[in-house]
Design a protein that fits this description.
- By secondary structure, this protein is an alpha/beta fold.
- The protein folds into 2 domains: 286 residues, Rossmann fold (3-Layer(aba) Sandwich), CATH 3.40.50; 153 residues, Orthogonal Bundle (Isoleucyl-tRNA Synthetase, Domain 1).
- Helices cover 49% and strands 15% of the residues.
- The strands form 4 sheets. A 6-stranded parallel beta sheet has the order 3-2-1-11-12-7, with helices on both faces. The protein has a 4-stranded antiparallel beta sheet with strand order 5-4-6-8, with helices on one face. Strands 14-13-15 form a 3-stranded mixed beta sheet, with no helix packed on it.
- Helix 10 links the parallel strand 11 and strand 12.
- The protein is elongated.
- The relative contact order is 0.11.
C-alpha cells in the first residue's frame, strides 16, 4: 500500500476562521478521503500558525498573554475543522514543544550549510503579510493584499537566509517537474518571480522588538521570523528530526495553499528544504480567493459569510457541496448568501434529496427485501479518482451529479411509479427491475459522493441496505 502525506497551510490565528479556510480544509479532506478510498494510506496535517508581530499585537489589544490568546484561537480552529468533518491525522501548533525543537534544529542545519548570516538592512515591511516588500510589489506605496495597513520602514540587524543562492536550482526543479505547482498559470507566475532574481530575506527579529517567537539557537537576542518557524511544521508534524523512519515514510508532501502563499510555499520553503538537506515537496496546489458580491469580504462592507452560520442553516455537507462544486478552485470565485441558497435548493433539495426520496419510497413500498449490492455497484470509477487527484474538484462533483441527472432521466422515461400500478404482470416486473436499477444507482452515487459529502453518503447507503426511505436529506428552507 502506498502512502501519501497531505497538508494545508497553517491558518494564522489573528482572526476567526473564514470561508477561505473552509475551502482549503475541505479541498484537502476530499483529496484525503478519495485517496483512502483507493487504498492509499494517508496522513493529513492541519494546524495553527501562532507566532509573530500580529499575534503579539492582537493579544495586547485583548489584554491577554500571547500564549493565552493563541490557546483560545487554536481551540477555535480545531473546533472549526471538526465541525467541517475534516478527517485530519495531525493538528500541529507552532507553539508545540516538539515543533519548537524542530524549528531550532532546522535553523542549525541551515547554519551548517552557511545559509544564515547577520546583516543590517532597511526594508519596507508589510505587517499584514509578515513579509518585506519591494517597490515593484507595492501599489501607491501600499501592499495590494493589505491596502489599509501602513508599510513600515525597518532598519535593524537581523539574521538573513541566502535565498539568492538557490535561484538556479529552483528554476531547474520547476523545469524538470512542470506540475510542481498547480495550476499552470501559478507555475508561470512562480517561475517569473524566481527568474527575476531572488533576494535574501530576513529570518529573525530582535527580541526587544518582538518577544513572541521561537528563540534563535545560541542567540538570546533574536527570535525566528514567523514564516521560517511556521514552514517547518510540514516536517515537524511527521516526526522530523526525532523520528527519521516516520519522516521517510511520509515525505515528500502535497501542499494546498492560497495564491497569497505562492512564493512562500513554492520558493522560500523549497530553498529552506535544500539548505537543510531535505527533498523538495511532492507538489503544491494553489487555490484562489472567495469574494462576495464581487468584493473582498470585510466586516466594514457587511458581506462576510461565516461558514459556521451556513452549517447551522444548511448542514455541513451542504457547505462542503457548495465549496467543492460551486467555488472555483483555480481562480477567485464569488459566493453570496443568495447564490448559496439557490444551489442548495436546486441541486440538493430538488435534485439529490428528491431523487433519493422518490427511489427509496418506491423501493420500500414495492421491493420485498433490500437490493443485494454487487461489487460494481460500490466501485468508484477510475476517472473520478483521476479527476480529484489532479485537483479538478468541480469536475469531480459534476461527475457525481451527472449520475443524479441520469437517474432522474431514467425515472422520467421509464416511469416505474406508473408501471408498478399496472394490472399487467409484465409491467409490474419491469417496474421492479427499474426500481432495483435506480437503487443501485443511488449506491454508486453515494460511493462517489462520500469524499465530499460523507454524512449524506452514509445516509444513502444505510437507506439502500435497509430498504427504507431516509428522513429528508435536504429539507426545503
Amino acid at each position: 500500500m502506498s502512502a501519501r502525506y497531505l497538508t494545508t497551510t497553517l491558518p494564522y490565528v489573528n482572526a476567526d476562521p473564514h470561508l477561505g479556510h473552509a475551502l482549503e480544509f475541505v479541498e484537502a479532506d476530499v483529496l484525503a478521503r478519495t485517496l483512502r478510498a483507493r487504498g492509499v494510506e494517508v496522513f493529513l496535517n492541519i494546524g495553527t500558525d501562532e507566532h509573530g508581530a500580529k499575534i503579539e499585537r492582537k493579544a495586547e489589544e485583548e489584554g491577554k498573554s500571547p500564549q493565552a490568546y493563541v490557546d483560545e484561537y487554536a481551540a477555535r480552529f480545531k473546533t472549526f475543522a471538526d465541525q467541517l468533518d475534516i478527517s485530519y491525522d495531525s493538528f500541529v501548533r507552532t507553539t508545540d514543544p516538539l515543533h519548537v525543537a524542530a524549528a531550532q534544529m532546522f535553523w542549525k542545519k541551515c547554519v551548517e550549510a552557511d545559509d544564515i548570516y547577520k546583516a543590517i538592512y532597511e526594508v519596507k515591511y508589510c505587517v499584514g503579510c509578515e513579509l518585506p516588500k519591494t517597490d515593484s510589489e507595492l501599489v501607491d506605496g501600499r501592499c495590494p493584499l493589505h491596502p489599509n495597513v501602513d508599510i513600515e520602514i525597518r532598519e535593524e540587524e537581523n539574521y538573513y537566509f541566502r535565498f539568492s543562492k538557490y535561484q538556479d536550482v529552483l528554476l531547474a526543479q520547476y523545469a524538470a517537474q512542470q506540475d510542481f505547482v498547480i495550476p499552470e498559470e501559478r507555475m508561470h507566475e512562480l517561475m517569473s518571480f524566481v527568474a527575476a532574481g531572488l533576494k535574501d530575506f530576513s529570518i529573525s527579529r530582535r527580541r526587544e522588538k518582538l518577544a513572541w517567537g521561537v528563540p534563535v539557537p545560541d542567540d538570546s537576542e533574536h527570535v525566528m521570523y514567523v514564516w521560517f518557524d511556521a514552514l517547518v511544521n510540514y516536517v515537524s508534524a511527521i516526526g522530523w528530526p526525532q523520528d527519521n523512519q516516520r519522516f521517510l515514510k511520509w515525505w515528500p508532501v502535497t501542499q494546498l495553499a492560497g495564491k497569497d502563499n505562492l512564493r512562500q510555499q513554492a520558493a522560500m520553503w523549497q530553498a529552506m528544504l535544500l539548505s537543510a538537506g531535505l527533498p523538495f515537496s511532492r507538489n503544491i496546489f494553489i487555490h484562489g480567493f472567495i469574494t462576495s458580491g464581487g468584493q473582498k469580504m470585510s466586516k466594514s462592507l457587511g458581506n462576510v459569510i461565516n461558514p459556521l452560520d451556513l452549517v447551522k442553516i444548511y448542514g455541513v455537507d451542504a457547505l462542503r457541496y457548495v465549496l467543492m462544486r460551486h467555488a472555483s478552485h483555480r481562480e477567485d470565485s464569488d459566493l453570496t448568501l443568495e447564490v448559496i441558497h439557490e444551489h442548495y435548493t436546486a441541486h440538493l433539495t430538488n435534485g439529490l434529496g428528491n431523487l433519493v426520496a422518490r427511489v427509496m419510497t418506491l423501493a420500500e413500498t414495492h421491493l420485498s427485501q433490500p437490493v443485494v449490492l454487487e461489487d460494481g455497484d460500490e466501485k468508484i470509477e477510475k476517472s473520478f479518482f483521476d479527476t480529484v487527484e489532479t485537483f479538478h474538484f468541480n469536475e469531480a462533483m459534476d461527475f457525481v451529479f451527472a449520475k443524479v441527472s441520469a437517474a432522474d432521466v431514467f425515472m422520467t422515461e421509464r416511469m416505474p411509479y406508473k408501471k408498478i400500478k399496472s394490472l399487467i404482470v409484465e409491467e409490474q416486473v419491469s417496474a421492479r427491475h427499474d426500481i432495483e436499477y435506480l437503487v443501485r444507482q443511488l449506491a454508486s452515487i453515494a460511493m462517489h459522493l462520500a469524499p465530499a459529502m460523507p454524512h449524506t453518503a452514509t445516509l444513502i447507503i444505510e437507506a439502500v441496505r435497509s430498504n427504507k426511505k431516509p428522513t429528508n436529506l435536504f429539507p426545503r428552507l
